[in-house]
Amino acid sequence: MANIPRHIAIIMDGNGRWAQKRGLPRIKGHEKGAEIVREITTFCANHPEIKILTLYAFSTENWKRPKMEVDFLMKLLDNWLKKELPTYIKEDIKFEIIGDISKFSKNLQDRINFTKEKTKNNKKLTQVLALNYGGRDEIIRACKRAKEKNIEIDENNFEDFFDTKIGDVDILIRTGGEKRISNFLLWRIAYAELFFTDTFWPDFTSNELKNIIEEFKKRERRFGGI
Ligand code: IPE
Ligand code: IPE
Ligand code: MG
After folding, report:
1. Which atom, in ligand 2's list, is nearest to the CA of 130?
2. Cα(10)–Cα(173) distance, rounded to whole angstroms?
3. Over the stretch 169-183, which tens digit does the pLDDT of each residue have?
4. Per the residue annotation, which of 3, 62, 78, 168 is the catalytic one?
5. List of domains in the chain
6. Spacing, Cα 125 to ligand 3 middle (Å)
7. pLDDT for 129 beyond 90
């Protein structure tokens, strides 16, 4: 039986290089990248097998970037959520996040929580944005929560202590040519099928995603068995 691509996660990398290649400032790549998020999300919402799309938008390490770029990304996210809300509603998409947004401005936190609230009953697809997200940070915070509640963790209950329960990843894609995980979803990618493409995120298309899903369906997932 073919594999089911229930949960797709993407490291959306290559925005800066896409822009630089065109002689544009890096932020133009982020702008174009946001448009691709819409295309890919709509594609996934229209594929009933796909239930969760998790997108790496800002890592716990991305604060190291110049303040101007960080500020731009925050503003872009705020504008984007404002603009996308009608799309989430129209396409029946639930908006969720993972990561520690307590480091974001109060306004941005309000916008994020408002979008979550307005879309919480939507059913076709859950789009999860990873915001100020680090796989290590998520694991450490989960351990602390379990300790506070004095509950012994095991492999089955550990995810209960994460910010958001989204389950294991089936397909992990990284655009932009680098072959690394960059602290994304460490716990949940234990048995994900990995796909690396040289395409910069602003050039990524639903057609390329379709091809990846086709290849995924043919792969043999053994999960340690034979
Ligand atoms: C990924 O693209 C987007 C974010 C990290 C916000 P980059 O900005 O890392 O683009 P490159 O890798 O420098 O080309
Ligand atoms: C990973 O990309 C983070 C996001 C896509 C949000 P980076 O560009 O930050 O990763 P490195 O620095 O190349 O590992
Ligand atoms: Mg990068």
Report:
1. 6
2. 5
3. 999 999 999 999 999
4. 62
5. 7-218 (3.40.1180.10)
6. 27
7. yes
